[in-house]
Write a structure and sequence with these properties.
This protein is an alpha+beta fold. It contains 60 helices and 47 strands. It is globular and about 145 Å long. It starts with a strand and ends with a helix.
């Protein structure tokens, strides 16, 4: 029974001045002293007016709501609050109002006549009877307002003393003495919540999905906030949420109505369910982790940072279906043509219970079988129960389910276990459901109608529980007359007489004391457990995934082992190990092994022991940490049973071989095991007791044996009160001893499994190993044992003892922690606990001593043979990230290595996979024993990984294989690996994480090119800079970074030398030193014309932005920075510095070629019309026709029309767009007017002029040289470009036929889709050629298909999907065809004298491909080593191809995927190389080398997206001298140069170019070949592109030794196509001769000569011989007499190995120079490719005259004739003016400074001191003397000018 307290709260309203918030205070309270069981809640006045106390000008209707307060004991108090308004005495508020008015300076406010203040009646109760409270308080108000003839004191006295029954389904009629009558019904079962209609209302307000979100959020402990303008609804919503959570009880903060003054409570870190008035909505907006449910708006807002775990899938769907059937039964028949009757939803009260029934049904499914996972570890004096979560989740197969995991870990479930765990208590509807209805629920799962019937039955129970007597309706409560609250003059609520009320209370209390105590009858009984979990899961069929056949195999194998039929067992073992993947097989194994244990011991021989241990390891290895409870628990007694004899008195147990599993270091596992065993022993204890007591033991045994522990515990709890004190004490003592003995037993067990066999190795403290990827410890142990252990042993005891002691200590600590926890929970006495603590170190020490003997003996056993792991060779600076993991390399779809196509089966191979900072390397030997002496290597750079996925692999091998990985690389390599059984699955996961970390570093600084040589842990996170920095800070950053890079006061930059006549091929680094002014701002006025550049600006700029482009521009005669005397003013182009600070275009280089007449300001405006601001710039000029090639991005959409439409169209007015359009036109005109052909013919070329120009052009089609060939016209350029092939046979040459008769001076190649609607103007000088281009997405998709075609992951079963079919479907060849076709077209146009502007996409992908190929085809210089390097640096690196983005090199570009635009370009070069093998100085291997290393990230060359980024990161001007490690090259070019000096691997022996040759390759798909780079593989050594690794090995000597010892061998060599490196095993003739020459030199003890010197000597002698033989003809030789003079498409191999040396040398004789550069053989050498760009002699001799030069040490001053050559960037000197032989060269790129000097010893006499000057280079110091001071100044100025021009 319960009493209520009543109090009255009134607001006398005395607010502080100017505030509207009053303060409520308590006027009267009854009773005046607290009830014992119902203390008076503090701060209640806040809850009476949650929005704050304030006055109103109008009388409000009375309001009622119930607030809920929770006291310190977690008891809830229901505060029913009835509020009405009373008139306030007007004098005081007027004062306050007038004072407010004064403050507002507005005296014209009308004073309100009346003000009303709220007054509240509050009733506080422990019981929640909302309607009764409303009626009672309403009655008091009615009596007062209507002036009924009843005393209020009597009403209140009656209310306070009426006794309400607590529970049990009773009803009671109460009256307050005003003619009223109410019936109070109490629920039958107290534990079931009472909800009224609140649940149904909540679903109506928010909808099914929203409420389910809130339900899951409440269960998984999130913060939930309800908003509504109604307090009553807030209370109802909170009550409803709690009702659907039954049987779980919410144990966190629960405040259905939170007053405004307490809103800071919402910032609490703990979960809560709180309701707040919508008035405070704005204050709730900042809450970041609170789920807000707006009841009025029907929305639930879940913040981004909150993740709600939802119900597991089938349950979620079933719940939603059931709820929709309850809430909207018409939905099901809405589509029926003839709906049967009306199916209206139930009434709200019934619907409410139906919804609750659905949730009850849901919990029954979630928690079914939970009682079977309760461990009862003590029965007396109080039950102690633990829930075995791992067993519950594992048996339900829900270990991965996030929702259930969180629920089981939550506070609500902990409360559920402690409340419902005890086996002897009262039971309710939920217990009944779990016990008896599980089977029914399972059967009805798929049938919604049957399920609904069940739900309705449950709903009936719930309804009956709330309304035990539904027929009773005897309520009679007076209500106030209508509108009574609006009466003008109402009585003030009177002050009540406390004495009268108190008399009532005392009288009632006396009556109660004399009455008999009302005791609620507790119906305790045994709680039924329901069907066991195993049965449930079996029927679900999850366990039966393993077929009976597999279990049979496991049983047979174990039988064979114990019958000693080892051969049979060996055959079955691989199948058994595979079968053990399944749970049923693992359980079967433990059961079978159990059968072979007699008296806790089973002694085996070595082979048996080995097999059993392997099966145990395999069983344990595949368990997840949650699932191990079942398997590891079953194996625990077995590992201490199976053993083998090692020697006299020494036995090794199986536990010493299965310690490497993390389960043994999991504290929760040991606790669960301990509790489980304790439960079994306590059960046995009581079974024994009952056996002694029962008269007929036979029957007793049968009865008791079948009982589970909970049933026995229930029986014992029932009997407990009947036992004597002594008996009770005896039982408590027995239980305590049982627990204590188990604790000792477990201390032993744990020491067995935690102490390693070799105690010198500290296995437990593995925290520094690979187990912690994120430095989070992998087990409970490593955390608990961390910390110093020095105090535990004698530090002077020597190293080994300390080490052992360290292990012992860690194990002792772990066991101590375990013992403390379990003993405290299970009530072990302190004496026993102390005894345990003293015992544990002794147990551990004893065990260590035993293990030492076992370890010693076990070492003598022969180990199981597994192949030794081979270590891979590493590059300098490359470090291992992980030790090798033993794996199998599985064959993929390439069949060469599997032996299917003949040859040895190299795959599958057994070995290890190594992860280094640079590569992934597999190294091993084939599994086939017949091939096992070969080494198989497969590797690729980590940076080239494009896809990684988990696969499962089954192999017929002796070893067991667990899951594998498939790793695909864009270097056309694929690794399918399967991890060996010894590799733990967590280690494989660590391996994957490491790969991902290396593949996608946070910033480009994390790539191998930057971290090489550092420890990988030193990778610095690069902070992202703000996007828009001012120019000033940008220039500062550029300078600072440059300085940082070099690390000294001056910034030295590595400048590119133009290849000189003398030393082509060896590029010197020339260093120019200039101090950089860091604070220098960019002066806009200095950016206009080149002539106005200040010298200080020049220096800064040349330091910051000079690169390869400039050298090329000078070579092509395209412009200069200075306007000195030697340059003519009328040069058409200039080098503009408008972009020197990268302000106009971030992705362009700093120096650009633009028309001379266009000022920089115009350029800045024009650039805005183009995408990415990439405006048209000149990148190449044809030396013969002077036509130029321009590149740009496509136009922005808006600029197209204005640009290409007729310029003469009338415009409405001069707008900005028009002016930009005109400037663009002007720009194009400036380009056109720069062409000589334009000026010759006054801007028009006739058709005849065009034909003659066309016919005189020479070119090479395919590989046939033509000269002056008359060509016929073919149909128009449009069809040719739109991708339609020319009609000529073999895809051969077709001349272009233009859209109009005259030739345009400028063709703009643009994207067809972009140029729609552009009209062609016949009067303009340019013509737009729209072509269809592919976008990068097509390249990406095509490349993926190409990779799958060339490197398939598995053999295709579809006979149609052959290699060529897959290749065709990839469309890679089509893309190559399109690029080549457009390039050839542009070449033709340039060759006929028209300029071309390539303006496609963003100007950095296809544009770059086309302009690079055009230059390669048109200009022989780019087909040399230096030229090709320069071409790539200029067009790809400087002009901002996005290497990092397209290569997905970092985390940020990961999502964009890998797009090989550069690889496509290299493939095109490869196609051209195949067609013109004599035109390229470099070999095909050179292209493959670049293709490999452009994705490998070994070098920094191809990192970052533009020069701007390279400067910002400080990698643009790195010096060679900076390398700490001589082997680590930062630039791929440096590496190539170094290798080229060592070996001719990059050199093309057939190089024999013709002057000025323009190549025009066939582009038809039938003429294109698949690049070997995509398909070749060398399993013997891995990719050959990390040259140092393969050629740095001394393998030849070993082979020689082997051959000597063996019998005479045949000369035949077998070359395996996918294993051997063909070029190495069978080199071509010339390489072979070089090798023989080298070995002869070594034999003779000579210093071997460099290959290039040898080659050049042979060529020179060949040339002289040819000269003598053929005096009259220029260079006819063997080669020329063959048809090769017409057809030069030739392969070395085809021409016969023997003759290839002579053949190539003959072709060389026609062109290649000797090293000295002299003119031999009839014409100048090709290495001097400057020749075709020579204009006049004067241009070569920029300045010349006589200077005295001081000789070397002790040599005199001598006059010499000096020539300053700007074009070659040299200062040469001769004996005299007539001398033709140069005596020396000073390379200006090496010059550091030119300063006035002083005369030194031996200087010419009588010459002015000012005539001396000094020149300092990086190599030496030169002293010069001119004829006079004026001459000296001229020399200094000229040299300075030359330096700044560069």
């Amino acid at each position: 029974m319960s009493f209520v307290s009543l109090l009255m709260v009134i607001v006398p309203f005395s607010p502080p001045l100017g505030s509207s918030d009053g303060q409520g205070r308590i006027l009267q309270r009854f009773p005046e002293k607290d009830w014992e069981d119902n203390p008076f809640p503090q701060g209640i006045e806040l809850f009476c007016q949650p929005n704050g106390w304030q006055l109103y000008t109008e009388r409000q209707p009375p309001a009622f709501f119930v607030a809920v307060l929770t006291d310190i004991n977690s008891e809830r108090h229901y505060c029913a609050c009835f509020t009405f308004w009373e008139e306030v005495d007007n004098s005081q508020p007027q004062k306050s109002l007038s004072s407010e008015a004064d403050e507002d300076d507005d005296s014209g406010i009308l004073q309100p006549a009346q003000l009303f203040a709220p007054k509240s009646l509050v009733l506080v109760s422990r019981l929640d009877h909302t309607d009764v409270f409303r009626n009672c308080l309403g009655l008091i108000y009615t009596v007062h307002i209507d002036g009924l003839n009843v005393q209020l004191e009597n009403l209140i006295g009656n209310l306070l003393t009426c006794v309400i029954p607590i529970a049990g389904g009773s009803q009671r009629t109460i009256t307050l003495g005003a003619g009223d009558r109410q019936v109070i019904q109490t629920p039958i079962t107290d534990s079931l919540p009472v909800s009224g209609c609140s649940v149904a209302q909540l679903f109506r307000q928010l909808g099914i999905i929203n409420v389910l979100y809130l339900f899951c959020a409440a269960l998984t402990e999130h913060k939930i906030l309800f908003l509504s303008s109604s307090y009553h609804r807030l209370t109802d919503a909170c009550r409803a949420l709690l009702a659907i959570m039954f049987p779980l009880k919410y144990s966190f903060t629960y405040v259905p109505i939170l007053p405004g003054k307490l809103l800071e409570v919402l910032s609490t870190p703990t979960p809560f369910i709180i309701g707040v008035n919508s008035f405070f909505r704005s204050e709730t907006q900042e809450l970041l982790d609170v789920i807000i449910a707006d009841l009025d708006g029907g929305t639930v807002t879940i913040p981004e940072c909150v993740h709600i775990s939802l119900l597991p899938d089938p349950l979620l769907h079933q719940t939603q279906t059931a709820l929709s059937m309850v809430l909207d039964p018409e939905l099901e028949i809405a589509d029926h043509a003839f709906p049967q009757g009306s199916t209206q939803p139930s009434s709200p009260k019934i619907q409410d219970k139906e919804i609750r029934a659905v949730f009850l049904w849901l919990f029954a499914q979630l928690f079914q079988g939970y009682r079977w996972c309760l461990h009862i570890i003590r029965i007396h004096p109080e039950p102690v129960i633990r829930f075995h979560k791992a067993a519950f989740l594992g048996q339900r197969s829900l270990t991965e389910d996030d929702f259930l995991m969180k629920v089981l870990d939550g506070m609500a479930f902990a409360g559920f276990v402690s409340e419902r765990g005890p086996p002897y208590r009262a039971i309710d509807l939920f217990d009944d459901l779990i016990a008896n209805e599980v089977e029914r629920i399972r059967l009805e799962e798929g049938n919604p109608h049957k399920m609904m019937n069940h739900v309705k039955e449950l709903a009936e129970h719930l309804f009956k529980n709330e309304n035990p007597y539904p027929a009773v309706a005897m309520h009679k409560v007076q209500r106030p007359s209508e509108g009574s609250h609006l009466q003008l003059h109402q009585m003030i609520f009177p002050h009540l007489d406390e004495v009268t009320v108190q008399l009532f209370i005392d009288h009632a209390a006396a009556k109660l004391r004399s009455a008999p105590p009302a005791v609620k009858v507790e119906k305790n009984c045994m709680v039924p457990s329901g069907p066991p979990l195993g049965a449930i899961v079996d029927r679900n069929g999850n366990v039966l995934a393993n077929s009976a056949r597999r279990l049979e195999v496991v049983r047979n194998c174990i039988t064979y082992i114990f019958e000693n039929k080892m051969l049979e067992a060996k055959k079955l073992l691989p199948a058994v190990l595979r079968a053990l993947k399944g749970r049923a097989a693992r359980q079967c194994l433990t059961q079978e092994l159990n059968l072979h244990v007699q008296q806790n011991r089973a002694v085996l021989d070595d082979q048996q022991f080995d097999y059993v241990v392997r099966m145990m390891n395999c069983t344990l290895q595949d368990c997840s940490h949650m699932d191990e409870y079942g398997i590891a628990a079953a194996l625990l007694p077995l590992v201490t049973a199976f053993c083998r004899k090692l020697g006299a008195g020494i036995t090794q147990f199986a536990y010493s071989c299965v310690q490497e599993h993390t389960v043994w270091t999991n504290m929760q596992f040991w606790e669960a095991m301990f509790y489980s065993d304790v439960q079994n022993h306590i059960r046995a204890l009581y079974i024994e007791v009952s056996e002694h007591e029962l008269p007929s033991p036979d029957q007793g045994e049968l009865v008791e044996e079948d009982k589970c522990a909970l049933e026995i515990a229930s029986e014992q709890r029932r009997l407990w009160p009947t036992l004597s004190k002594e008996k009770q004490q005896e039982l408590i003592q027995k239980e305590e001893s049982t627990v204590f003995s188990q604790a000792i037993h477990y201390a032993n067990r744990m020491s067995y499994l935690l102490l390693p066999l070799d105690t010198s190795k500290n296995r437990l403290l593995r925290s520094s190993g690979l187990g912690d990827v994120e430095s989070v410890s992998n087990s409970y142990v490593t955390n608990s044992i961390a910390g110093s252990m020095a105090e535990s042993y004698d530090t002077e005891s020597g190293f080994e003892d300390a080490e052992t002691s360290d292990v012992a200590n860690s194990v002792v600590r772990f066991i101590n922690r375990f013992v403390d926890k379990v003993c405290n929970e299970s009530g072990v006495t302190n004496e026993h606990l102390k005894a345990l603590h003293t015992m544990i170190p002794d147990i551990v020490q004893m065990h260590i001593e035993t293990l030492d003997a076992v370890h010693r003996e076990s070492k003598r056993l022969p180990p199981i043979q597994k192949p030794k792991l081979l270590r891979p060779a590493l590059l300098a600076g490359e470090e291992l990230m992980m030790d090798g993991l033993r794996v199998y390399l599985i064959a993929d779809g390439r069949e060469e290595a599997t032996g299917v196509l003949g040859g040895p089966p190299l795959l599958p191979a057994e070995g290890a996979i190594f992860l280094t900072t640079y590569r992934l390397i597999f190294k091993g030997t084939p599994s086939d024993p017949l091939v096992a002496e070969q080494v198989v290597t497969r590797s690729f750079p980590v940076a080239s990984l494009t896809k990684e996925k988990k696969i499962s692999i089954s192999l017929q091998m002796d070893q067991f294989i667990q899951e594998g990985l498939q790793l695909r690389s864009c270097t056309f390599q694929l690794m399918k690996i399967a991890f060996d059984e010894e590799v733990a699955s967590d280690l494989a996961e660590v391996f994957r994480k490491h790969i991902h970390k290396l593949r996608y570093p946070q910033h480009v600084r994390g790539t191998f090119a930057f971290t090489v040589g550092q420890s990988s842990k030193l990778v610095v996170e690069h902070k992202h800079k703000e996007k828009n920095q001012s120019l000033k800070t940008l220039s500062k950053n550029l300078m600072k970074n440059a300085k940082k890079t070099i690390g000294r006061q001056y910034v030295t930059r590595k400048k590119y030398t133009p290849p000189t006549w003398e030393n082509r091929g060896s590029i010197q680094s020339q260093v120019d030193e200039d101090e950089i002014s860091v604070s220098e701002e960019v002066d806009q006025s200095s950016l206009t014309m080149s002539s106005t550049i200040k010298s200080s600006d020049r220096q800064t700029m040349s330091n910051v932005v000079e690169r390869a482009c400039c050298r090329d521009y000078q070579r092509l005669g395209l412009g200069t920075l200075s306007n000195s005397l030697t340059r003519s003013k009328n040069e058409p182009f200039r080098i503009s510095t408008v972009n020197r600070m990268y302000t106009v275009c971030r992705s362009y280089p700093g120096l650009l070629i633009v028309p001379q007449s266009i000022p920089d300001s115009t350029i800045q405006r024009i650039s805005r019309c183009y995408r990415q601001n990439r405006f048209p710039v000149v990148c190449w000029r044809n030396s013969r026709t002077k036509a130029v090639l321009l590149r740009s991005a496509g136009l922005h959409g808006k600029g197209v029309a204005g640009f290409f439409k007729s310029p003469n169209a009338p415009s409405a007015g001069p707008s900005q767009a028009d002016s930009i359009s005109l400037e663009q036109e002007k720009y194009l005109h400036a380009i056109i007017s720069s062409m000589p052909s334009y000026s010759d013919t006054s801007g028009r070329n006739t058709l005849s002029g065009f034909t003659s120009a066309h016919m005189s052009s020479s070119g090479k089609w395919g590989s046939i040289r033509v000269s002056g060939r008359i060509s016929s016209y073919n149909p128009d350029i449009g069809t040719r470009l739109a991708g339609k092939d020319s009609p000529q046979a073999n895809g051969g040459p077709s001349e272009t036929h233009f859209l109009r008769q005259q030739r345009a001076h400028l063709y703009i190649i643009g994207d067809k889709s972009q140029l729609k609607g552009a009209k062609q103007d016949s009067f303009q000088q340019w013509e737009v050629v729209p072509i269809e281009v592919f976008d990068v997405r097509q390249v990406k998709t095509s490349f993926k298909k190409l990779m799958k075609a060339c490197v398939p992951s598995s053999s295709s079963l579809d006979s149609n999907m052959t290699f060529y079919r897959c290749l065709e479907e990839s469309e890679w060849m089509c893309l190559l065809h399109k690029v080549l076709q457009v390039s050839v077209l542009v070449v033709e146009l340039l060759d006929t004298g028209s300029s071309v502007m390539v303006s496609l996409e963003d100007g950095w992908d296809i544009t770059t491909q086309v302009v690079s190929l055009v230059q390669l085809l048109s200009d022989p210089y780019y087909r040399t080593f230096d030229g090709f390097r320069l071409l790539v640096e200029k067009e790809w690196l400087s002009f901002g191809h996005r290497f990092s983005h397209r290569g997905a090199q970092t985390m940020t570009s990961q999502s964009s995927g890998f797009t090989p635009v550069f690889l496509q370009f290299l493939d095109c070069v490869h196609q051209i190389h195949l067609q013109f093998p004599m035109e390229f100085e470099f070999s095909q291997y050179y292209l493959k080398f670049l293709a490999y290393h452009y994705v490998s990230n070994r070098f920094r060359t191809f990192l970052l997206d533009s020069d701007y980024e390279r400067i910002e990161l400080g990698v643009m001007y790195e010096e060679k001298g900076e390398r700490k490690n001589p082997q680590v090259y930062k630039s791929v070019w440096d590496n190539i140069d170094r290798l080229n000096k060592k070996t001719p691997i990059f050199f093309n022996y057939m190089f024999s170019p013709e002057d000025g040759e323009v190549l025009k390759p066939y582009s038809c798909i039938s003429n294109l070949k698949v690049w070997e780079f995509y398909t070749e593989e060398t399993l013997s050594e891995g990719p050959s592109y990390d040259w140092e690794l393969i050629h740095g090995r001394p393998e030849t000597t070993e082979e020689a030794e082997r051959q000597d010892t063996s019998a005479p061998k045949s000369q035949r060599k077998i070359i395996w196509p996918c294993y051997d490196n063909k070029s190495k095993v069978e080199p071509d003739a010339i390489t072979k001769l070089f090798q023989e020459l080298q070995s002869l030199e070594v034999e003779l003890g000579q210093v071997s000569e460099k290959w290039k010197d040898t080659w050049d000597k042979i060529k020179a002698t060949q040339r002289t011989e040819t000269k003598l033989e053929h005096r009259h003809t220029l260079s006819t030789s063997l080669l020329m007499s063959s048809n090769l003079s017409h057809h030069r498409r030739v392969n070395l191999q085809e021409s016969g190995v023997g003759s290839s040396l002579n053949l190539t040398l003959d072709t060389e004789s026609s062109s290649t120079s000797t090293p000295s550069g002299s003119m031999v053989g009839g014409r100048p050498s090709t290495s001097t490719l400057y020749s075709q760009f020579q204009t006049t002699e004067s241009e070569h001799r920029s300045f010349e005259g006589i200077l005295y030069k001081k000789g070397a040490l002790l040599k005199p001053w001598k006059p010499r004739w000096f020539v300053l050559d700007k074009t070659k960037h040299q200062l040469r000197y001769y004996e005299n003016r007539q001398d033709k032989d140069c005596k020396g060269v000073i390379d200006l790129a090496e010059v550091e400074s030119v300063t006035p000097g002083t005369p030194t010893m031996g200087a010419p006499k009588a010459i002015d001191e000012k005539a001396f000057f000094d020149l300092k280079t990086t190599k030496r110091f030169y002293n010069f003397c001119a004829q006079d001071s004026h001459n000296a100044q001229l020399w200094i100025d000229s040299i300075q000018s030359c330096l700044s021009d560069a």
